[in-house]
Amino acid sequence: MGHGIIAWIIIGIVAGWLTGKIMKGSGFGVLMDMVIGLVGALIGGFISSHLGLGGVGDHGLIMSIVIAVIGAVILTFLVRLVTGNRSAEL
């Protein structure tokens, strides 16, 4: 059973906010944090499904947020590598 649009928005907001806290950066703003969280959910879902754990939509809300945060942290790390923004210590 997959998540609805409201659940995806909540996952994106929470995952983006948590990623901002984990990565010790200033964040990208509320809207971009949400986008980072949603894209992180795609990345995390891709990774978890290839590890045999199932995708983001295959789990409950909390586990979906955890998977999305992992994906968003990976995405933020890669963006910082590409852009050279290393002002925040990892």
Provide the descriptors you would attach to this structure in a database record.
mainly alpha, single chain, 90 residues
Give an overview in words:
One of its GO terms (cellular component) is plasma membrane. Its main location: membrane. It is a multi-pass membrane protein. InterPro entries: Transgly_assoc. This protein has one domain. It contains 3 helices and no strands. The mean pLDDT is 77. The protein is mainly α and 90 residues long. The protein is globular and about 35 Å long.
Care to give the gist of this entry?
With 90 residues, this protein is an all-alpha fold.
State the secondary-structure class.
mainly alpha
- H/E order of the elements? HHH
- Main beta-sheet annotation: none
Mean pLDDT: 77
Strand content: under 5%
Enumerate how many helices there are, as a single number: 3
How many domains? The number is 1
The general outline is globular
Low-pLDDT sequence parts:
none
The N- to C-terminal Cα distance equals: 35 Å
The Cα radius of gyration reads 13 Å
Number of strands: 0
Helical fraction equals: 55-70%
